[in-house]
User: Which sequence fits this backbone?
């Protein structure tokens, strides 16, 4: 059996199960009939898959810690981060629609071979770091819910992750539906916790005003904003839109893009609500209490919520964390396939990729490294990859010879470049503070 296979034709470049999606979602705009939600349906899905990266276990750690330590002060940071994410993911979707190629493929076409290989190497490293965080989050959730030791919990996570991954072979639409279901579980779990916490509306609105509470709050804000963009889903989102509904003219592609923007706004608004709910719950329940310091440890934070709120709030937290870890890990594996296929014109079986990327996480659990600390370190590694995905995306989207009628307006390019600069600078600051201990 050939494990590493060359991808030769556009049909072979499809994601697992994508041919089935095209039959269901139609090949052109003519077939996307109906009105209202029915007309929108063929375009929904890609942004929901991408949105999982914005509610992964790393977000749990920063949001809960922010609320526990500083109350509602950093709520505005989450809102700002979410708006940035909407812009970046819209541009990624636009690239796929305009070119029929994903970001990795366009990089391969436009950059020298050496640059392409180097981009692939760093992207693979980022994919592994991402998977470590997501895998550890799921293992922590199983430990919290069922008191399973972390290493056996990691093994069990592997089996469940393989099951979720199998859905991709049966059609990407089924996979998208399951991922959307996981997002719904996370949303309902934290929605219930907000109801139990009964936060004051005045405090919530007060948190929307930009402010800091000392140097530590600034550092945490840098962590929240600096981790806004997940490099792997920039590559993935462009892949999910490149063949979904094919436009035959600039006008059709513009219309498709407008539908995809709706998908992005809906999906990332839900992700933003989830992130805000995490911080609001921690602020209402843990801030200015003896449990405030527990926000830095996800298991302790969950137990504290259960103690303070009752009504099995700790179980709700664990269920949400498990849904986050399993869904984001599966999405990360699919993104890794897109990255390899796009940069190198090669692919390996998804199950082999899943086994390879989960090995570092299992090793960390086996040797007894603190999973929360490992999760934080993985987020630092992840920040290295942001410029290598974000800068090419903005450059490509500003080129008329590549984008045609979907080329960015000058105002869009200016705003996107400003956002990219802020994200990159904040990541540099985060890395500096992390390594210097400042």
Assistant:
């Amino acid at each position: 059996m050939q494990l590493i296979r060359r991808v030769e034709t556009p049909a072979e470049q499809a994601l697992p199960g994508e041919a089935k999606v095209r039959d269901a979602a139609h090949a052109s705009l003519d077939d996307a009939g109906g009105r209202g939600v029915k007309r929108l349906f063929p375009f929904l899905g890609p942004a929901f898959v991408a949105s999982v990266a914005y509610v992964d276990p790393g977000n749990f750690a920063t949001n809960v810690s922010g609320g526990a330590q500083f109350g509602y002060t950093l709520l505005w940071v989450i809102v700002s981060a979410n708006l940035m994410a909407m812009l970046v993911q819209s541009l990624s979707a636009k690239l796929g629609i305009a070119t029929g190629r994903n970001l990795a493929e366009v990089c391969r076409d436009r950059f020298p071979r050496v640059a392409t290989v180097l981009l692939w190497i760093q992207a693979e490293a980022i994919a592994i770091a991402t998977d470590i965080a997501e895998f550890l989050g799921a293992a922590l959730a199983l430990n919290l819910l069922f008191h399973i030791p972390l290493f056996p919990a990691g093994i069990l996570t592997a089996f469940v992750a393989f099951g979720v991954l199998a859905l991709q072979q049966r059609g990407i639409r089924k996979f998208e539906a399951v991922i959307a279901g996981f997002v719904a579980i996370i949303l309902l779990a934290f929605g219930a916790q907000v109801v139990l916490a009964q936060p004051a509306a005045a405090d919530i609105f007060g948190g929307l005003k930009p402010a800091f509470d000392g140097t530590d709050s600034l550092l945490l804000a840098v962590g929240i904003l600096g981790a806004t963009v997940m490099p792997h889903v920039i590559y993935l989102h462009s892949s999910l839109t490149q063949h979904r509904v094919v436009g035959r003219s600039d006008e059709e592609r513009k219309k498709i893009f407008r539908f995809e923007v709706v998908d992005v706004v809906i999906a990332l608004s839900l992700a933003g609500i989830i992130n805000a709910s995490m911080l609001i719950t921690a602020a209402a329940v843990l801030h200015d209490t003896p449990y405030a310091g527990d926000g830095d440890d996800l298991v302790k934070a969950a137990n504290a919520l259960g103690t303070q709120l009752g009504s099995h709030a700790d179980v709700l937290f664990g269920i949400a964390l498990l849904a986050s870890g399993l869904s984001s890990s599966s999405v990360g594996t699919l993104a890794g396939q897109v990255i390899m296929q796009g940069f190198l014109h090669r692919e390996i079986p998804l199950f082999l990729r899943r086994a390879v990327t989960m090995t570092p996480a299992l090793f960390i659990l086996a040797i007894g490294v603190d999973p929360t600390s490992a999760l934080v370190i993985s987020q630092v590694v992840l920040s290295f990859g942001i410029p290598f995905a974000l800068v090419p995306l903005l450059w490509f989207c500003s080129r008329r010879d590549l984008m045609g009628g979907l080329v960015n307006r000058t105002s869009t390019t200016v705003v996107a470049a400003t956002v990219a600069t802020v994200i990159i600078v904040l990541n540099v600051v985060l890395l500096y503070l992390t390594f210097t201990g400042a």
In short: Residues 250-285 form the longest helix (36 residues). Residues 9-14, 16-27 have pLDDT under 50 and may be disordered. Residues 236 and 387 are 16 Å apart (CA to CA). The radius of gyration is 21 Å.
